[in-house]
Amino acid sequence: MSFRELAEDMEAQILESLGDIATVDGRDIAGFLSIPWLQPKLGRINTGIREPHFAIRVHDATGVAIGQIVSIDLPEQDGGGRYDLVGLEPDGTGWVSLILRLKR
Questions:
Q1: Are 38 and 51 in contact (CB under 8 A)?
Q2: Residue-range definition of the domain harbouring residue 16
Q3: Mind listing the GO biological process terms from this record (predicted)?
Q4: DSSP alpha helices (H): ranges in 29-99?
């Protein structure tokens, strides 16, 4: 078994145990939700700006496109809700970050 195959098996097990579920275009996709604060990037301006990311595996990103609605299956306090997909950022390691904006 190749290193890549071993890594894919490990990722699948981690996602199954610890991952979050998002629905994109009617399809459930496992990944990891992260909502970092951007204040450190903006110096001393006191802002509440956040940039939600949902990291998914590259092979799960097929058919995912900017403009789609992403629903995160978590309580609202944990970042769950409906988001607009505003960007896709592959990281070069087999993962793609979906850049999200909260749908109001």
A1: yes
A2: 3-102
A3: virion assembly
A4: none
And the tokens for 41?
A: 């990037």
CB 36 within 8 A of CB 50: yes
Whether residue 94 has pLDDT greater than 80: yes
pLDDT of 38? 63
- The two tokens of residue 33 are 């939700």
**Which residues have a Cβ under 8 Å from the Cβ of 59 and sit 6 or more positions away?**
none
Number of structural domains in the chain: 1
Other beta carbons less than 10 A from residue 64's beta carbon = 19
DSSP 28: E
CATH classification of the domain holding 25: 2.40.10
Tokens representing 19?
């991952």
* CB atoms inside a 10 Å sphere around CB 47: 11
Check: pTM over 0.70? Answer yes or no. yes
Instruction: Count other Cβ atoms within 10 Å, centred on residue 53.
Output: 18
